[in-house]
UniProtKB/TrEMBL annotation:
InterPro entries: dCTP_Pyrophosphatase (IPR052555), DCTPP (IPR025984). Pfam families: MazG-like. PANTHER family: DCTP PYROPHOSPHATASE 1. This is Nucleotide pyrophosphohydrolase. It comes from Pseudodesulfovibrio portus.
Length: 120
């Protein structure tokens, strides 16, 4: 299994087999996603930037689990709303490439909000 579609189908079966469909509204899924992002955030809380790059062992496995939860909820929300998540992500990348052109950022260390402020 290596596609979001396969992952979503697997989790949809998981939900259906447990008769949890009634709980799978976009609202509920977004709330669950927010909780999982909070759990991911907790794993990085109080770490230095350097420490966050060097996670190993149980800490890295915990991050992988929380990232998986986040991904599962994202795919569930997209499925429930009939949104092609990969296509939407590509469309967003296209938008970002137009909004933040390479030549405006190469070699100057600007962050997106700094560029936006210049344009206003």
């Amino acid at each position: 299994m290596d596609s979001l579609k396969e992952l979503d189908e697997r989790h949809r079966r998981f939900v259906e087999e447990r008769h949890w469909q009634k709980h799978q509204s976009p609202k509920n899924l977004v709330m669950a996603l927010t909780g999982e992002v909070g759990e991911l955030n907790e794993l990085f809380m109080w770490l230095t930037t350097e420490e966050s790059w060097k996670l190993t062992g149980d800490k890295k496995r915990a991050v992988a689990e929380e990232l998986a939860d986040v991904l599962i909820y994202l795919t569930r929300i997209a499925d429930e709303m009939d949104i092609d998540l990969v296509a939407a992500a590509h469309e967003k990348c296209d938008l970002n490439e137009r909004k933040y052109p390479v030549e405006a950022f190469q070699g100057n260390g600007k962050r997106p909000h700094e560029y936006k402020n210049e344009q206003e």
